[in-house]
Description:
mainly beta; 11% helix; 9 strands; nine-stranded mixed beta sheet
Amino acid sequence: xxxxxxxxxxxxxxxxxxxxxxxxxxxxxxxxxxxxxxxxxxxxxxxxxxxxxxxxxxxxxxxxxxxxxxxxxxxxxxxxxxxxxxxxxxxxxxxxxxxxxxxxxxxxxxxxxxxxxxxxxxxxxxxxxxxxxxxxx
Length: 137
């Protein structure tokens, strides 16, 4: 999912193994972007696992985190910003609190990430995947 506040932007689903980072969009909302296009918001399904790095000290120190940490992407049940991550100790931090410049490696990209933008199809990689034919198997 992408936060409601990011619906005005082009979006695409996250891909397993890619590195994405948090960025403040012109709307003021923090979202994930890929290195190939910082104007396209990368959306994640709830329960996607990420490895975060470059956490700001104001977050990593109180949480006792040194270096990279595996977290789970989640959604807050609120009327404000919803996108968040859950740390191993159970602490939940919104992307707004993470701020910009935090990198994340996508450990698993879950299926079923719905498009949150009318422009989503423009941002998706439409390259077809070749399927083996009986002659090539």
